[in-house]
Design goal:
By secondary structure, the chain is mostly beta strands. The protein folds into two domains: 56 residues, no CATH class; 159 residues, no CATH class. Helix content is 8%, strand content 35%. It has two helices and 15 strands. A six-stranded antiparallel β-sheet has the order 6-14-15-10-9-11. A hairpin with a 2-residue loop joins strand 9 and strand 10. The radius of gyration is 22 Å and the shape is elongated. 35% of the residues are buried. It binds zinc ion. The site of zinc ion has 6 residues, from loops.
Length: 236
């Protein structure tokens, strides 16, 4: 065996669609250990698909062999049944609603977050990551809403009407969690002990589709204007 270690060198990184650097680095370092390329200075797994890249190193570039399977990123759709016509809105509803993350992709990736959203939906909770944004649930039409945070102009006026904000969401947990009020009570939720961070909101009874956007390519939670994390609409 040859355990020779070569001098590291910096080469352009051709990521093949994977997100391996959140700061947008286009180069990485590589050295060879016993003939096997060791790439450093970038993430261990892709921020979208969570795959650990397989590298091919030439004299002029570090290339990832397989393309990212999600060139557009991930838009995650789930549905929430709201037969009671009331929803509980807050950041987290654990332990009444939770999911088993074993076997799921890393929550640091868009895929892992999409899997978490779907697992929570299966438990009866519309859930989604929102970063440290303190968003609100805003009404946008008769039976449509967004989970969004406003942008502010120079005079600190928000670009989403405050009158349309039905519930503010603290982001200690960097997420929103929304459940049908009766379903939540059936799981042991106690309306008499609701803290100030939990809102109960009246909406039209029915089935609601949540379309969550944070996993999409180009989604920018730090954009200056209003940021929509999820669209919510009544579909039945
Ligand atoms: Zn990828």
């Amino acid at each position: 065996m040859n355990f020779e270690i070569t001098e590291p060198k910096t080469l352009p990184l051709e990521a093949n669609g994977h997100i391996l650097s959140f700061s947008g680095k286009t180069e990485a370092e590589v050295y060879f250990l016993a003939g096997i390329p060791q790439v450093s200075g970038v993430a261990y797994g892709c921020g979208v698909c969570d795959e650990r890249p397989k590298y091919q190193v030439t004299d002029t570039a570090i290339k990832v062999e397989n393309p990212c399977p999600y060139p557009e990123g991930l838009t995650t759709e789930i549905t929430l049944e709201v037969p009671s016509g009331k929803i509980v809105v807050t950041d987290g509803l654990s332990p009444l609603y939770s999911y088993d993350d074993s076997g799921l992709a890393s929550y640091n990736s868009a895929l892992g977050q999409a899997e978490a959203i779907r697992a929570m939906a299966a438990a009866g909770c519309a859930y989604g990551p929102v970063g440290n944004s303190c968003p609100g649930l805003y009404r946008t039409g008769p039976d449509t809403y967004v989970v969004a945070r406003p942008g502010y102009d120079e005079d600190d006026n928000p670009d989403l009407p405050e009158d349309d904000c039905f519930a503010g969401i603290v982001t200690d947990l960097w997420a929103y969690s929304i459940a049908d009020f009766d379903h939540w009570k059936s799981r042991g939720g106690d309306p008499d002990t609701l803290g100030w961070t939990v809102s109960v909101v009246d909406i039209t009874p029915g089935t609601y589709r949540f379309t969550h956007h944070t996993g999409e390519r180009g989604f920018n939670g730090d954009a200056p204007g209003a940021v929509v994390f999820a669209h919510v609409e009544r579909i039945a």
